[in-house]
Every structure is written in structure tokens, then in C-alpha cells.
């Protein structure tokens, strides 16, 4: 009996061990299967994310290619790209597409110079030996279908016009020609311009070279003219019919002035000469221009601009631009040097507060920059024009209106409300357009074989773009 009981006890202990082993094995198997499942899910999610990324970037690329030929399709594809995978590339692409819808052709006539009043109401475009005057209030009114033509033409130069400028209120205009003469115009009634006076760039008419740049102070009382002999002439326009020459300074011994900017009060200026040197000038006493400081980039500068308050200066060259703070004009502080996707910079413009810049060059697009954080300028959008290149740009005081001119004509941009577009391009694209759709044919054409149903297509004939979920794939 004792032997039998012992055997039974041994069997019981063995069975318990087997049950324990089975439980342990089951737990280990469950852990292994769970871990394998997690690995599989992680790999599947990673593959799905990569698929979404590739699809989104592909759609964004197609959208960019279609902006001119099919803007509606470009918008829908760009929005789908952001919905599927929102990153810097897809968002920038959608913003560029939305901004592209805000551009229009002002004139197909080639123009090398443009100017804009501070309120964006009056524009000047130069072509040959004449300058056209435009009333943009009617051009920008969406209720007006048949856009009016120019309202006046400024004539009087014997040779081509090389510079134009407007006062903030648009009532005083300057047109400078290759004949060395700058004409002062009264545009109080822009449809009936009045020629007030002619200004010589140098100390005498014979001393004046071709006018390359011109600027007028906010109140229209101070004008600064630069010519290709290197003369920078300051004029008092308090009596526009009898301007008084205040000073003439040769910026460099053997170099011309290619670009310059003027503060709103006429008390400060910045110049870029033919050698690429950037110089800040104190014009507190207009009869005695004083060089305050020199600004240097790693390479020679090609263009410059100054904010209306005279506290911000921007200068640039091929692929690079620099930003300076001029709270103390005698001691400029470099706040940023940033890369620019332009092989050269032909012209640039700043808003009154110096927080928005427009740069242009040998490209069919002007580049808008957000300078509100001086130490970190950020690209905002590309303004794709109609020209092979852009020679001249202008911004209204608040950046709401922009002009870009070149061999292909002049483009007008309505940028009012752009901040909302940049902040949330998805919302801007879907606002008032919740029916944005991509049909099966376009999906098959542009989606690279991605499964239609994974992104909300299902059994429908169209994909409602505004309702694509970022993680729907």
C-alpha cells in the first residue's frame, strides 16, 4: 500500500510539473506571438507611412506641374497631398498653388520697372520711353469682370525709362530715363497727370548719367536719384514745380549705383554700387550726406531695400541674402544670413515694417519671405509670374499687394489674407470648396497605383479630398 501511494504521489508531482510547463510554454508562446504581432504591426505601419509619404510627395509634384495648365486639379492634388501626409514639402506646395490663384496679368507688355503706392492703389509700369499709370482699386475688385486698362501714360523722356518711384500716397511720381533726366509728376488726379519739373542727376545736366534708381520719401518732399556715373543726388520737392538740389555725392570713384532704398522720412538710405558694396547713409541733413556704415555679405551684393522706418536693411546676391538691424545707423547689427533659391537677385522689396520681403531674379517666380523673426527668415511662398525672369518687384506698405515685372509683362498679386493661408493651407483650400474631389481617372493617372479605397474612395466614383483622414491608409 505504501508503495502504491508513493507511486501515486510521484505521478501527481509529475503531472503538476507538466501542467506548469504547459502553462509556461503557453505564456511564452503568447508573449512570442504578441511580440511578433507588434513587430508585424510596426513594420506594416512603417510601410504604410512610407506609402503615404511617397504618395503625398508624388501628388504634390504633380500639383506643381499642373498649376498653370489645370489650376483646379493642382489645388485638389495639393490638398490631397497635405491630407495624406502633412510636412514642409506638401504644405509649401499647397501654399504656392493657393497663392498662384491670387495672381493676375496686369499687362503683357514687357516692363523693366514697377512702383506701387503705399496703399497699393496706384501702380506705375515702365516700358521703353513711357510709363503707364494704373488704378488697382478697380483691377482688384472681383465684381468687375472687364478689367480696365491703364488710366494714363507719362511721356517726356528722350530715351528709355530706367527708374520709377511713387510717394506713399501715390500723388508724387518720379520717372528717370537713360537721358539722365528725372521728371517729377503730380498724380493727385492719376487719370490726369501733371508734369511738374525735370531733375538732373549730377551737378549739371551734362554731368548726369543714365538714371538707374529713384526713391521718394513718404511725404513726397524728398527725392533721391542715382545714376550710372555714381552720382547720388538729393532733392527738396516741397515745391514740386521748383525743386531744390540739396546735395550731390559720388558714392564711389569709378562705380555706378545699381540699387538703393530710402526710409520714409528721407533721413536714411542704403546703396549698392556696381562693385557690390552696400553702404548706409545718414541724410538727417540732406545737404550733407554722411556715410554711416558699410554692410558686407560673403559675396558682392546685387540688390538692397530699406524698411520705411529705416531700421531694417536687406541686401542680397546669388543664392544668399543678409538682414541687418539699424536701430543705430552707425553700428548696424547683422541679424541673419540665409539661403535664397535664386541664381542672382535682380530686385527686392520690403514692407514698411520690414517683416515681409519679396526677392526676384532670373526665374519666373518671386520669392516671399517672412522676416518677422529676424534671426530665422522663412520662405512663405513663390509668386509665379508670366515672364522668363523678373527684373523689378514692388510691395504695398502692408504686403497685401505685389507687382512683378519682366520681359513677359507685369503680374499683379492680391496677397491680402495670405497669413491665414500660410497658417492653415488645408482650411484655406477647403473653405467654401468642401466639394473638392478627385475622380478615378485622375487618381489612376497621378496616384502611382495606390489603392483608391485605402484613402476613402470606396465604391464612390470620386474621392472627397477635404475628408481624407491623415491615417486612413
TrEMBL record:
Pfam families in the cross-refs: WD40 (PF00400)
Lineage: superkingdom: Bacteria
Gene3D superfamilies, per database record: YVTN repeat-like/Quinoprotein amine dehydrogenase
Transmembrane segments: 21-40
SMART domains documented for this protein: WD40
Keyword Amino-acid biosynthesis: no
Keywords (A to Z) from UniProt: Membrane, Repeat, Transmembrane, Transmembrane helix, WD repeat
Keyword Lyase: no
Annotated WD repeat ranges: 154-187, 204-245
InterPro entries for this protein: WD40/YVTN_repeat-like_dom_sf (IPR015943), WD40_repeat_CS (IPR019775), WD40_rpt (IPR001680)
Protein name from the UniProt record: WD-40 repeat-containing protein
Amino acid at each position: 500500500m505504501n508503495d502504491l501511494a508513493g507511486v501515486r504521489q510521484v505521478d501527481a508531482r509529475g503531472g503538476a510539473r507538466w501542467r506548469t510547463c504547459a502553462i509556461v510554454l503557453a505564456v511564452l508562446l503568447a508573449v512570442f506571438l504578441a511580440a511578433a504581432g507588434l513587430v508585424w504591426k510596426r513594420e506594416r505601419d512603417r510601410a504604410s507611412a512610407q506609402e503615404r509619404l511617397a504618395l503625398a510627395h508624388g501628388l504634390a509634384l504633380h500639383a506643381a506641374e499642373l498649376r498653370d495648365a489645370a489650376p483646379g486639379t493642382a489645388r485638389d492634388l495639393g490638398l490631397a497631398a497635405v491630407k495624406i501626409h502633412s510636412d514642409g514639402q506638401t504644405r509649401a506646395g499647397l501654399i504656392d498653388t493657393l497663392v498662384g490663384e491670387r495672381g493676375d496679368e496686369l499687362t503683357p507688355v514687357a516692363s523693366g520697372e514697377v512702383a506701387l503706392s503705399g496703399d497699393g492703389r496706384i501702380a506705375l509700369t515702365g516700358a521703353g520711353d513711357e510709363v503707364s499709370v494704373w488704378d488697382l482699386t478697380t483691377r482688384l475688385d472681383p465684381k468687375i469682370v472687364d478689367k480696365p486698362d491703364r488710366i494714363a501714360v507719362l511721356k517726356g523722356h528722350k530715351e528709355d525709362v530706367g527708374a520709377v518711384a511713387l510717394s506713399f500716397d501715390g500723388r508724387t511720381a518720379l520717372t528717370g530715363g537713360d537721358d539722365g533726366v528725372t521728371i517729377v509728376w503730380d498724380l493727385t488726379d492719376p487719370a490726369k497727370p501733371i508734369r511738374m519739373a525735370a531733375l538732373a542727376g549730377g551737378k549739371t545736366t551734362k554731368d548726369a548719367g543714365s538714371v538707374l534708381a529713384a526713391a521718394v520719401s513718404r511725404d513726397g518732399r524728398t527725392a533721391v536719384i542715382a545714376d550710372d556715373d555714381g552720382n547720388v543726388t538729393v532733392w527738396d520737392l516741397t515745391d514740386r514745380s521748383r525743386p531744390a538740389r540739396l546735395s550731390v555725392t559720388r558714392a564711389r570713384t569709378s562705380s555706378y549705383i545699381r540699387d538703393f532704398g530710402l526710409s520714409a522720412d528721407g533721413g536714411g538710405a542704403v546703396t549698392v554700387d556696381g562693385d557690390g558694396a552696400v553702404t548706409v547713409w545718414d541724410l538727417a541733413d540732406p545737404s550733407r550726406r554722411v556715410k554711416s556704415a558699410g554692410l558686407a555679405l560673403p559675396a558682392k551684393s546685387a540688390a538692397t531695400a530699406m524698411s520705411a522706418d529705416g531700421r531694417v536693411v536687406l541686401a542680397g546676391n546669388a543664392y544668399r541674402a543678409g538682414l541687418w538691424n539699424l536701430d543705430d545707423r552707425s553700428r548696424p547689427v547683422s541679424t541673419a544670413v540665409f539661403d535664397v533659391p535664386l541664381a542672382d537677385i535682380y530686385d527686392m522689396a520690403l514692407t514698411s515694417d520690414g517683416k515681409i520681403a519679396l526677392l526676384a531674379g532670373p526665374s519666373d517666380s518671386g520669392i516671399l519671405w517672412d522676416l518677422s523673426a529676424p534671426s530665422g527668415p522663412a520662405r512663405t511662398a513663390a509668386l509665379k509670374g508670366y515672364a522668363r525672369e523678373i527684373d523689378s518687384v514692388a510691395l504695398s506698405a502692408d504686403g497685401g499687394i505685389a507687382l512683378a515685372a519682366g520681359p513677359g509683362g507685369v503680374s499683379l498679386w492680391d496677397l491680402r489674407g495670405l497669413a491665414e493661408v500660410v497658417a492653415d493651407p488645408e482650411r484655406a483650400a477647403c473653405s467654401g470648396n468642401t466639394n473638392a474631389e478627385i475622380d478615378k481617372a485622375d487618381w489612376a493617372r497621378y496616384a502611382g497605383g495606390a489603392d483608391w479605397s485605402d484613402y476613402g474612395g470606396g465604391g464612390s466614383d470620386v474621392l472627397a479630398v477635404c475628408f481624407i483622414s491623415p491615417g486612413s491608409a
